[in-house]
Amino acid sequence: MKLWKPDGTLLRTLGTHPVEAWAVDSSPDGTFIVSGSADNTAKLWAPQGQLLHHLKGHQDAVYAVAVSPNGRRIASGSIDGMIKLWNPEGKLLKTLQTKSSDNTAIFSLCFDSRNIKLFAASDNGTVQQWDVSTGRLLNRFHAGVNLRAATCSPTDQQLITADGNGKVKLWDTRSNQVIQSWTSNLKGDGFLNIARFSPDGQTLALTTWDQRLETWSITLWTVQGQQLTTLVKHQGEIRAIAFSPDGKTLVSGSFDQTMAVWDIEQILQLDSLDFACSWIEDYLKTNQELKERDRALCSGITRQLL
Fold first, then answer.
1. Nearest Cα to 106, choosing from 160, 163, 62?
2. Helix (H, G, I), strand (E, B) or coil at 266
3. Less Cβ around it within 10 Å: N or C end of the chain?
């Protein structure tokens, strides 16, 4: 576990799990970081590097962790099908378990913006909705095939799910009804792996594996399903993405042992300019009334980001 500055400078090394760390999240006020590992445990860390608490109790790898928006609850989800709720002092508050037939691996967790509900995405394609205070299962609904990603909007009572067929759905968490849905433009067999909302709740980042092209990428979308751009950099599976608090930067981490810091604001501006230049490309080439120097207006504007 390492902490970095946005410019790539290493701040400090926190500590380690004996095997792979699969998930990480942090408290909204920055006072602690939680990690989940294939060693069947989660750990709470201080930003200064000290191990605060070792959260034990799962019977298999901890694949998902989440901190509530108010920082008062921590959820851990495991391949064993169990979800555990903890407080920041490391005390186990509740173990959430449905009937044994539903105990499939938990791949994604998120708290709603009001700290009332916890959503858990399972590999059987269902989303479980839990009451955080009582630990009661409120609802269960089918959201897709080979479901890997579910993320709660930070600003509204909405949930995004993304599945193994490239299907993305925006849900109203009050009614559990689909508000919007679209299919990611996978060019071959592949799947969507991780989803994250921007802090203002208006932009969605999805990590995508395209089997035919053998590429991992990040696609940015509006919540209405309009694709904004595609970011390609990593050579291995993208295991983590996160927006900065101001939404201007996106960070991604990969099994290729690299991290990438994306200037989202600049990228989207460049994409808009690229689109405009593409639209007038023939005009610049063929219009006889243009001066020669004007034909180079779009020189240097490339489509490398797409």
1. 62
2. helix
3. C
